[in-house]
Amino acid sequence: MSLPTTTEVEQIDPASKPSALVNRIDIIDIIRGIALLGILILNIPYFSMEEYSSESWNQDTSSTNFWVHAINVILFEGKMRALFSMVFGAGIVLFTSNKEKSGRSATWLFYKRMIWLTLFGLAHAHLILWIGDILYFYGLIGMLAFVFRKMKPKYLALGVPIVAVIGFIANTLFMQNIREKYLDYKEAIALQESGNELGEKEMAALGAWEEIRKEMIPNKKEVVENTALMKGSYADVASHIRPKAWDGQFKYLVFSIWDMLALMLLGIALYKWGFLTLKWTQAQYIKTIWIGYGVGLPLVIFSFIYNTIHFPNVETALAFFETHSINWVSLIYDFQRILIMMAHVALVMVLYQKGYFTKLMNGLRAVGQTAFTNYIMHSVICTLVFFGYGLNQYAEWEYYQLYYLVVGIWIFQLVVSPIWLRYFMFGPLEWLWRCLTYGRIQPFVRK
């Protein structure tokens, strides 16, 4: 899941059409490029693997799958999504600041831009059939983050711990509601097995839990049916993906808003503080690396080991769920991922300042500059490789084998993106989005 670029720094004459880019902040494009490539690590299993596929190896330390998964959880899971949101938040300021400095309002232009992004997200989820689309959420939440863009950085940054705690409480209350239904169901089953006739209350408990189970915990028969749909025609795949995407975009939208909003606000704060624009010293970035990895890695490793021991499969998870009303270890998640994400970014800053990996940095910059196009390309490639109407490789690969394709896509985009930008000013989808935002055809081919 990536975000399209919003870090354009433009010089626009009020009477003229929107101009081509005059300059960009290279390091933000590089960070976006890293986020784009990194998020494919986390997305590709959802394109390619059936439910519960990890249960056969997620406690098997002799399995290559186990160690690849461990690295992904420790270094990337949650961190790339946080990085997306953070860079997107910085992009809100970048998109609007030059226009507002010249005395013009950027409000309608920005909101029109976000409306189009939301519509792109709906198309991405329901036409290209990617259940993990993030464009829709960024379009909606970006409109909300825009309201806070002029707030002082210290207040913006406070949103992260506040939202982390509020999110933990909200999620706990949500899970406790489900747990209550599960305990009612267990009580009804025990009554039934003892030979007693079930009353209206018990029958309602059975029905309520069955509804939750079908949505969140498919049984083995349903997993087989779902896999068959994913290996079927476009209509078959759509019949499985669209309801889930719809629930995520509407039914559970309220649970998605706060995390992304807080991280966008953090991005605005870090931009204003100069963290994202190389205004910190190397010593400050190095200190961030030591703190981020020094505190974040022990936390995430502990969390990974804890979850591996206690939640290897659905049965053990339900048993834990039955006896524990609160999973306190989950409180670690938001803090460790922010710490490690900050360390990742600081490490990139130091490498860039020192002039290391110049060719790779140039490739990442181009990937970040065409991130919208490259993000959609991920979905097109993966759906055509794994879904039934493509090469039909769904549920056919080992987990570790997925990363051969990931590396192949990385290499392709790192090579092709710089070549594309030699001849064109934007990626094709960036250009289309720009035309729709400004309401007129924009320059595209480099002269």
From TrEMBL:
| Domain (DUF418): residue spans on this chain | 270-439
Q: Which UniProt keywords apply?
A: Membrane, Transmembrane, Transmembrane helix
Known Pfam families for this protein? Answer: DUF418 (PF04235)
Q: Does the record carry Transmembrane helix as a key word?
A: yes
Q: Does the keyword Membrane apply?
A: yes
Please give the coiled-coil regions recorded for this protein. none
Sorted alphabetically, which InterPro entries does this protein's record hold? Bact_Transport_Assoc, DUF418
What parts of the sequence cross the membrane? 27-46, 129-148, 155-174, 252-273, 285-306, 326-352, 372-391, 403-424
Can you name this protein?
DUF418 domain-containing protein
Which organism is the protein's source?
A: Mongoliibacter ruber
